Amino acid sequence: MEFTLLRGNQELADAYNNHELSYTMNGGSPDLREEIAKLYGPNINAENILVFPGAQVALQTAAIALTNGHTHSIVFNPAYQSTQEAPVHAGSQVTKIALKAVNNWQIDPRGIRENTRYLVINEPHNPAGTLMSPVLQMQLKTLAEKHGIYILSDEVYRFLEHDESDRLPAMADLYQKGISAVTISKPWGGCGITIGWLAFRDLSI
Question: Hey, which bits of 116-192 come out as E strands?
């Protein structure tokens, strides 16, 4: 079946008609990874992107890759449930820290142990819709660098800020051990496409 456009972008129609429909490479097709990498800074290329069938699998994969029964993880509550439960399912020791409305749901990263390896945040925050301050984001990065902790940032609602000037840097851009988890479903309205990804700089993960 050929897809044609009566008017509009013929290049898009040609890409649809000529795109191979066989199984793609693990981690996503090169052309998709290249396009996703354009959302990030110069340290993120196609090789720094892993594509998944939605962000749920991405969150689980990251937790399994970085944690085990000997490691400790820190998560925050309330938050999207999978960000909290993925390290639990991976067998990690997990500390859940409560966020409070009185301080605008800002995180207070405490409870770091000698074996803390993984910290999961949700920015912009789901369900509160609040944003971490840039100062707090830098403090978090500095703290994680000091202790060698990976930060996974669920950034599913990034690009939906009411004011673009409030947008925080992607964690994958900000921090060498930062991981950005994203899905096409929210900012781009592509829920049925079920494409999610992880962006990260550390290729040793």
Answer: 116-122, 150-154, 178-183
